[in-house]
Please model this.
Amino acid sequence: MNSTAVPRGASEPFRQLRALRRARKLKQEDVARKAGISREAYLRAESGQADPRMSTFLAACEALGLEVVLAPQHLAADVNAFIASRNGGVTAASMAGQPAAASQPAPAAPAAGGFGSGTGEGHKPV
Model:
């Protein structure tokens, strides 16, 4: 497997986090430290070797400046379009190198821009 390939076992949300981390030229250690988790825990989650707790996923998202937004699947495309309209056409998927239309709607998807300041305000319901 080459260094840019995403491991087969990795979940789609962690695939996006991995691509975003790499696009920002961050090391796993950087994200793990900011998220308050061990590098090993982050590596296992990102590589698909472990099924991390939701708290690990949320901490990694916050460390990357993302807010997790829950949306009904039938509205996911509209939510992504709204985020892109407010964020210069950028969504979490496009930041990770994927076209926004290609991203699959998910019950919990990282959303670029977010609703919090990233200063520990916590996660706000939508």
